[in-house]
Design goal:
Radius of gyration: 22 Å
Strand content: under 5%
Order of helices and strands: HHHH
Number of helices: 4
Largest sheet: none
Number of domains: 2
């Protein structure tokens, strides 16, 4: 029996490999995609089942891992954390982004404004920081 390395087996056939997929990378990508679907499509049957079973009182992104969860859900949570580290906001008009509670300040890190929010500014969205009918920042509000 001839043995060959896993690296050679996962190379494409065109360059001398056997064309197998790297199962670890494939599984990581699949679990990340499941997490993305749960986050963006909460009305899907899979999302409703998993959210109903595991995080009925918390959001998917804020769910903390418990001891009595399935291996599959634990894998989705690990990839969810990878999504959380690498996600950013496309601000657009800013109407859906909370100034104080969503990490929207940086493309490279999860940054939020610091300091306590005043009662008047607690529910501000990013669109509220623009001049009316304009795409320029209102420095007074900022």
């Amino acid at each position: 029996m001839a043995w060959t390395s896993w690296e050679k087996m996962t190379k494409p056939k065109a360059i001398g490999g056997l064309g197998f997929r790297d199962f670890q990378a494939f599984n990581d990508a699949f679990l990340g995609k499941l997490g993305w679907r749960i986050l963006n499509n909460p009305s899907l049957l899979l999302s409703r089942i998993l959210m109903g079973k595991y995080c009925h009182s918390e959001s998917f992104m804020e769910f903390t891992e418990k001891s009595a969860i399935s291996h599959g859900w634990r894998g989705i949570l690990v990839r969810r954390d990878l999504l959380k580290e690498n996600m950013g906001w496309v601000v657009g008009d800013g109407s859906s982004i909370s100034v104080w509670y969503d990490p929207w300040l940086s493309l490279s890190a999860q940054l939020r404004p610091t300091g306590p929010a005043t009662e008047d500014s607690m529910n501000l969205t990013v669109v509220d920081l623009f001049h009316e009918n304009s795409r320029t920042w209102d420095k007074e509000k900022i």
